[in-house]
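INTERNAL AUDIT FORM
Audit reference: QA-55
Scope: verify that the stored structure record matches its stored sequence.
Auditor: D.O.
Record contents follow.
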Amino acid sequence: MIRTVRRQELMTVPEHLWRFPTREAIASLAIRFDVPNEPHMQDWEWEVADPARIDEYLNAYHVGELSDDERFTLMETMIQAFDDLPGPLEADVRWEATLSILDENIDLHAYSVWYWSDLEYELGDETWRVTPFLRKLVDKHRARLDPQSVSQDHDGGEPDDARESPS
């Protein structure tokens, strides 16, 4: 079956939001959580995610002993763990707590929120389970995350003044 997906404007994460796990953060978290850290692991933060350890992840995040790089990387692992978690996310108070962390720390986690919002697809096409929740955060923080979009109309078109003909 061939699936047709409507592409939207601003699909990829804007470059000014780019942030990626560091080797140091991965090494530290691998030791803390006693998980493998092998050179062949391309997406370590997703490969080691384990829904059974979500409580551990949240506790480590809240203890306050992590650097920003470690918190960023751990959040990527947490989001993946929630995406892998069976059952409805709406019913999980830990997911609500995680959404609050993301909301309160949007500058640190802007890349993750935008990435997992999967804006290149319509909801339900090829999105992750966490996508609808994270799209709400993108919408809430759109002016901060993507200032260019503030000057565009709701259809993703040109800014209003760009459509006016010169006089």
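Auditor finding: record pair retrieved intact. The chain has a mean pLDDT of 84.
Action required: none
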